[in-house]
Each structure stands twice: as structure tokens, then as C-alpha cells.
Amino acid sequence: MPTVAVDLGNRSYEVLVEPGSLARSGELLAKTGLNGRVALISDEVVASFHAEAALASLNAAGFSPTLHTIPSGESSKSLTHVEELCRSMTRAGHDRKSIVVALGGGVTGDLAGFVSAIFYRGIPFAQIPTTIVSQVDSSVGGKTGVNIAEGKNLVGSFHQPKLVLVDPETLRTLPDREFREGFAEVIKHAAIRDAAMLDELLTLDPDSRDVPADLIARNIAIKARIVEADEEERSGERALLNFGHTVGHGIEASVPYGEMLHGEAISLGLRAAVFLSKKRAGLGETHASKILGLLAHFRLPVVLPDAITTDTVLEKLRRDKKFESGKIRFVVLSAAGQASLTDSITPDDLREATDHLRTQP
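Below the sequence we write its predicted C-alpha cells.
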């Protein structure tokens, strides 16, 4: 199976990518040296498809798992559900020797990871991501957390998993919209670090669920190398992963959670970031058109709904973690595969970029 090592000293772990590996999750988790009781955290929809296989495998490997489910959707990524899960785990007899396994998409992974970071002051956890977004991005890197009314991911912790197990077969159970949204993160990775991938993505059938394991592993490797260089986002290197996320998070936070999927908001954010990269960083039209063409290829949104006002987006942006001492750290491209961080983007630039999203490409 394609394997990507994330080298973080005593917090190092492997990401294993193999079709059908969900049914071997217990065996593979045991190989990390972990043992004890497992709290399997999943959302209700994912659990209906995959929990039985995961529980059977964990039982066969001697882990004595219990299942803890949350409602599907972004609204579950809250402190209320953190408390509910901690109480449910306590009632089920879990303690500091237990392990959390997150089975699901980015919401489940972020939430379960945060629960594992604070339950009994921190217990080990593993990720079994089941969406494109979570497989190529959010399951790797140790960022965990929840949303509050003022913004996304404002309460959280760095807590690295012990193992990430990616089974591309789980993508077959996703609705079309949830499947396609994840390619916004794939396009982002290609844009910041792998220009050749942009051409390769155009050859993929956006309706096919046969996503190559090697492509997933290649995206994970991009994320892993950046995380290794800047685990807790101190040097600025890890911030490159926020390409498209500044405006994207502002848009996502401007509507009720779940109304717009994460990848859909990031698609709009990518278009805004491309616009500002052309204006401020010299991004050429050829590379810009290639990125925008891929958003269209995967049928991702590129026009901002009229109901989302520019003022609302900008207000949400001001509360974003990417602001430091009143200045925003914005990721721009000088060319495909060449990303950098700048603090020269002004509020007027952000307003212009957001207004640009109201035009047809």
C-alpha cells in the first residue's frame, strides 16, 4: 500500500492508503503498539455504512470498541458535542488508557481529535477518513478543534494521531456533492506545491469514484512535508496550506453551518486568491486559467450567491485566526506550484476580491 511517513520526532506516524483497508483497521492499529479499549466516533450517516466493519475488525484485534455517534454536518463541530462525547465515553467506561478512533469526514476527525486531546488530559487517537477533504488534508497534521459562533476552528489543539488509515473505497458511499467538494483541497495542494498535478487532475472523470490511491498519497505527502517543516504554524510554512482559505472561511462562516460545504466555500476562496495573486504577486493568466478551469471541471462553485454580502464576509474575516496584530497573512501564487505568504493584502483588496466573486468567470 502507498505509505506516507509524517516525521515529527516522538510524534511521528504513518498514513496508510489502501483500498479495502477499513476491514483491517483493527489489525493495522494493533501494529502501532496501541492496545486497550477504543471509542469509535462517527457521524450517523457514515456509521450506517462503515461502523459495522470497523467494529468487527477492532473486536477481532482485541480492542473492545464502543460506538459513539454524532449528527451529520458542520453543526456537530461544537463544544456542546465535545461535552456529550466525553460524557458518553465516561459512561461507557473509557479512561486514560483508552484510544479514540475517528471514522468519518473532516467534521468527525476535527471533533474526535479534540475530544482525544482533552479527555483525561489527552489520550491517543487514530483517523479513518472517509471523504476526499479528510483523506487528502484534514486527517493529517494534528489540527483538531471546533467552531464557535464567532468563527471556524477558533477553539482547538494540536494533537497528532498515532495512525491515519485511508481506504479509498469509502468514497463510493458519498453523495455527489460531498464527493466533489473535496477536490478543492486537491486543487489547492497542486496550486501551491505541484504544478504538474494540475494537468493530471484534468484527466480525471469528476463522476468516477475510482480515485487513484497514488494521487491521494501524493496529496498527503505535500501536506506531510509542510507540517514537518512547521508543525504548529510558527515559521509561516504551514500557513501556505491556507491558500484559498482566508476568503473561503469568511464565506463559509457567513451562512448557517452546513448550508455551504467546506470545499464549496474553499472553491470560492481559491478564485479570490487567484484574483489577488494576479494583482499582487504576478500570477500569469495561463496558470490562473488552469486553476479556475479545474474548479469548473469538478463542478465547484465560483460565483458568490447574492444573499452573502461582502460586508458580512469581511466581518467574518476579521475574526479569522490568520489575522495577526490586525494584519492578515494571505497566501498568494507567483506561479503554479510557487506559493508565498504576504501581509501586503489590504482590506480594500479583500473587498475587491470578494466583489469579483459576483462576476461570471
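The longest strand covers residues 151-158.
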